[in-house]
Amino acid sequence: MGFWRWKNISPIFSGARGLIEALRIEGVEVVFGIPGGAIMPVYDELLGSPIRHVLARHEQSAAHMADGYARVTGRPGVAMATSGPGATNLVTGVATAYMDSVPMVAITGQVATRLIGTDAFQEIDTVGIFNPITKYQFQPRRPSEVPRAVKAAFYLTATGRTSPVLIDLPKDVQMEKEEMVFPESVDIPGYRAEYEPDPLHVAKAADLLLAADRPVLLGGGGVIKSNACDLLVAVAELLNIPVATTLMGKGCIPENHPLSLGPIGMHGTYHANKLIMESDLVICVGARFSDRSTMNLSEFTKDRKIIHFDADPSEIGKNLKPHHYVVGNIRKSLRILLEILKVKTVKCENTAWRGRWMELKSEYEDAIFGASGEFTSPRIIRKIRDMLPIDAIVTTEVGQHQMWAELHYRVLKPRTFLTSGGLGTMGFGFPAAIGAKTAKPWVPVLDIAGDGSFLMTSDSLATSVQENLPVIVCVFNNSCLGMVAQWQRAFYGGRYSGVWLGSKPDFVNLAKSYGAEGVRVNGMLDFERALREALKSEVTTVIDIPISPEENVLPFVATGSSLNEMIVR
Amino acid sequence: MSADESVVLQILVEDKPGVLFRILNHFRRLNLNIDAVTVASLPGVVGKSGITVNLKANSEECSMVQRMLNKSIDVVNVKLVRLSEAIRRELVLAQIKMDQNTGFERLIKNYGARVVSIRGDTAVVELTGEPETINSFINSVLDSGLVSLSRTGLAVLPFEEKVKEFAENIL
Questions:
Q1: Which listed residue (A80, A110, A137, A171) is catalytic?
Q2: Phi, psi (5° rounding) for residue A327?
Q3: Burial of A349 per CB tally in 10 Å (0-12, 13-18, 19+)
Q4: B21 touches A at CB < 8 Å
Q5: Does A195 touch chain B (CB under 8 A)?
Q6: Number of structural domains in chain B
Q7: The CATH homologous superfamily of the domain defined by A199-363
Q8: What does the pLDDT read at residue A8?
């Protein structure tokens, strides 16, 4: 079975069969989705194929599952839905993947071609809707166009700057039979999958780096996506320079590494934010200088040189004008950089700059973490890290708990921390955890959640139980939309508007009603016991952790402020 | 923020359905108002079309939209043309009632327009020129016998520094 079968012959297949065969050729193991009228022929073909189908309970969750699968494996996730509401429900999940450059192929059914444009039942302009949130959209109009569309979709989604791609398949195209050719490759004239780094550009970057007194490396999600973490760490170790990350870059250096500063940004670590503002050179690798990372941009670029390494040429100069840049595959660029540095330098020893950031690091530990009480969110998150194995996967929802995780959960391996950084999608973490578990059933997967976020996709409990994909959900339950409440305390004089989640389910019984486990904890020992049980459990466990609604995420850089102007109390 | 100036983007794209929508959607996202857009297939270049977009934008907006266009899968090549360095031409067809326009012949002569067709007392006139000339011509006939008109939008050709093969030039 597989590609070899169709290599020298052109079989006559329905569009649906052609789609499934093409997915198998691409090595797809699992699709996440929900069937409906306009995609039934594909679901019928799925039945006879070895591709696993994981039934979501909402298409948004299906997309997040495919997203979680892709972030963990680096291979495209596949989400499937019917036309109309199926497609529109996918939108948030696909947009989440788009903003975080995650490879994903979204497949939607569509009404028959003769009905397109007639406002037929469950017809919507899916291609039009997905245009701004996907790298490309395909709508094969003949069955024979299906194999090329799939080949091109997987090529586009997984190369260059990875991003989701849509295949919208009209029902008549799924049903009609036609002779098909399964191409081995596709030619897309306007698309350049990869840029080769110019060694001269890299050499200049190396010179600037060696000339700097107080350099900082800034690693973004692009380092993880291009599997270049080892090289980034090697560069840092060679020169003995500290590595800060963005939220998406968490894990590009083990966060227990002596050179790791943790993330910068609105809720970056105290020492990373302070130190980057004291540096005279920042080498930013695979990050896009988002407003949440740099905060006040003119302060961020003042008094320091910025060197930007990126795989996507359109990122250079988009948010800030770097002093120097290198466009090209991150792994290749870093390899050249490392070779050049090895020739030009010997391993750097302790410097005053190193002393400075060691000093800042301990200051932070004492000033912020040390002051908090016994059973607080930061301590619970550190406890989670202590109890999980090194390769365990942690996902987050969006809100205060996410920022506590950013600050206090130490990521030790790349692709083990999944969070919605760009779009900031509440409800992402739980289905993404299920997707991650599908990819790696042998590692524990834990979702750090808030009560507000968890309620948005908690129906995925049904999926996790039915599909035997046990994950752990730690609900940091403050009975409110905590981050909005924190902002209302900080910037709106404590006038709370629309943030209290008064009437919400009992999470323990909610979990149990789906056949999952639920447990409420009070105190650290209780939590430890619950997590230990959950790690052994064969079903999903929801751990309800009541926390104070008054607890703030600190440090905190207000919008418009510079990174070193942190609110710490 | 620099001042708005009239610029032209020459965009070489794949010739297939949906491309113009994808291209123009970038301008929509940046709230840019397009003055003229033309699409034409290019003889000798199979499967590609040239899109010429004329708009007023500042340099930040230009660079942003170029960035987006370059990233578009359908786009093979984008060129920003400075109008000061290019030949600009536009064509207008105007249907004019001759009996209401006593100065009809003089007008035609002044602008160097050409009568393409005459039916009864109505003539269809063709004029090619720079957009300012076209505007001035339209203003002249607006109150004197203009029945209908159609203008093409801008075609531009920048001066190139050296002679290149046609295909190399656009690819």
A1: A171
A2: -100, 130
A3: exposed
A4: yes
A5: no
A6: 2
A7: TPP-binding domain (3.40.50.1220)
A8: 77
pLDDT at A369 over 70: no
Contact between B164 and B64 (Cβ < 8 Å): no
β-pairing verdict for A243-245 and A215-219: parallel
Question: Which residue ranges make up each domain of chain A?
Answer: 3-179, 199-363, 377-546
What pLDDT is recorded for position A371? 53
Determine which one of A3, A29, A122, A299 is catalytic: A122
- Rounded distance, CA A528 to CA A511, Å? 19
The per-residue pLDDT for B162 is 59
pLDDT at position B170 is: 47
- Distance (Å) of CA B20 to CA A24, A136, A403, B23: 33, 14, 41, 5
β-strand partners of A567: A556
Q: Do residues B14 and B48 share a domain?
A: yes
Please check the confidence at residue B171 and state whether its pLDDT lies above 50: no
pLDDT attached to residue B1: 63
Nearest to B25 among A132, A313, A318 (CB): A132
B92 and B50 fall within a common domain: no
Active site residue A365: no
Q: What confidence category does residue A450 fall into, taking pLDDT thresholds of 50, 70 and 90?
A: very high
CB atoms near residue A78 (< 10 Å): 29
Domain identity same for B111 and B135: yes
Q: Examine the residue annotation and report whether A59 is marked as an active-site residue of this protein.
A: yes
Superfamily (CATH) of domain A3-179: Thiamin diphosphate (ThDP)-binding fold, Pyr/PP domains (3.40.50.970)
CATH 3.40.50.970 fits A377-546, yes or no: yes
A189 CB within 8 Å of a chain B CB: yes
- Sequential DSSP letters for B116-146: EEEETTEEEEEEEE-HHHHHHHHHHHHTTTE
Is residue B167 domain-resident? no
Of B86, B105, B132, which residue is a domain's last? B86
CA dist A245 and A260 (Å) reads: 8
Position B97: which residue type? K
